[in-house]
Amino acid sequence: MALLACLTMLVMSVAACARTPKALSALRDGRINLDSREPDVRAAAGKPDLILATDGAETFYYRNGDRAVTVTFVGGRVVAFDDGASWPASAAAAADETSDSVATGKVRVGMTEAQLMASMGKADGLTAEDGVETWHWVDSGDVDSVVHVKDGAVIGFSDRPISEYTQNVPDASRSESTTDGRVRVGMSQAEVARIIDEEPERTSGKSGLTTHEYKSNPILGDKIFYSVSYRDGRVVAFSEFNASHDEEQREEAQAKREAANAEARSKSVQRSLLDVLSDPRVAGALRGKQKLKSQTQVSSTTTRSTAKRTLKINGTTYTGGADLGRPCSLEKPCPSDYKCVMVTDRSGMCAQ
Which domain holds residue 335? Predict the structure, then answer.
């Protein structure tokens, strides 16, 4: 018996170990520490399920159920780790949906532009903000894989659903486009003017930035506004805004709001009617007249000696206590020991 017990505990122990992610074990037994190098982390924890980066910090994600074990590097050394981090479900789903994922090891912090293009190919378009360029690879209209580049080197990357960042997805097919890769951070205003070769539709200035806006409004196709912003005469930002798509989104959002408001009004009316039915005086009057439904026959008797009541609903006799016959519905259920016997499409009476 003792041997059998030992074997059972051994099997359970092995099973528990099998369920523990390799990265979690590596953290807990001290094989991953602050200042560990990336090769040591990979040797201890294995290949990460996902890699995301921002502002030069790169994070390995190892999935652990609905959570994650994370290890974050700066300059190739571990600066932070967490055995109970959130799993980035949106980024992971986007990475699974595209063949151009930047979160599986094809792109790394510190890559040069040449190395980035060798790994990913030519970008579908570029945008920029605060001197940081974002290179976009758009896959089948569903995923926008982005890489952030500053001073000629990669500082961040992720995959994201286009639906979350639609206005940042560049349309590089027009002569007025500032997002097709011709305009770059650091260019002078004169250099941009030679590229676009037309006067801006609008010029504005705010917080030290001068912004030129170009409108592309063909007879067929979406209306798109392109912009370039300068600080001290040099490009620091450029982007586009698809006004046609924005109008469609607003119309769709308005339709959803109207549908939600209509549903809320309907529920409010239903609650008001149910409140009326819940009034004991109304319920008593309805039961007394037997008119809840023309084809429904309801009769009620009370036996004082037993304090029990009987109620006939749709030809079936039910017996119960004080809550027998109480109005009920899907929104207003009966007490735990009663059930709601439907009398109309929306309401009924409590019975045991």
Answer: 279-351
**Closest among 290, 279, 292, 291 to 326, alpha carbons compared:** 279
Place of tokens 């580049």: 149
Domain assignment of residue 207, yes or no: no
Last residue of a domain, one of 87, 121, 146: 87
- How sure is the predictor about 252, in pLDDT bands with cuts at 50, 70 and 90? low
pLDDT at residue 142, as a whole number: 81
| 74 within some domain | yes
Q: pTM of this prediction?
A: 0.64
Cα distance between residue 284 and residue 275, in whole Å: 14
Give the other-Cβ count within 10 Å of 36's Cβ.
21
Per the structure block, which two tokens stand in for 305? 């000696």
The per-residue pLDDT for 328 is: 86
Residue 38: CB atoms within 10 A of its CB come to 15
Tell me how crowded residue 351 is: count the other CB atoms within 10 A of its CB.
23
Question: Domain end: 29, 61, 87, which one?
Answer: 87
In the structure encoding, which two tokens stand for residue 196, read together?
């676009």
CB 219 within 8 A of CB 262: no
From CA 243, how far away is CA 251, in angstroms rounded? Answer: 12
Report residue 51 as tokens. Answer: 């890699």
Name the token pair of 294.
């023309």
In this structure, what CATH number is given to the domain that contains residue 79? 3.30.1450.10
Tally of domains within the chain: 2
Instruction: Summarize pLDDT for 272-298 with one digit per residue, the tens.
Output: 656 665 666 666 665 665 444 444 444
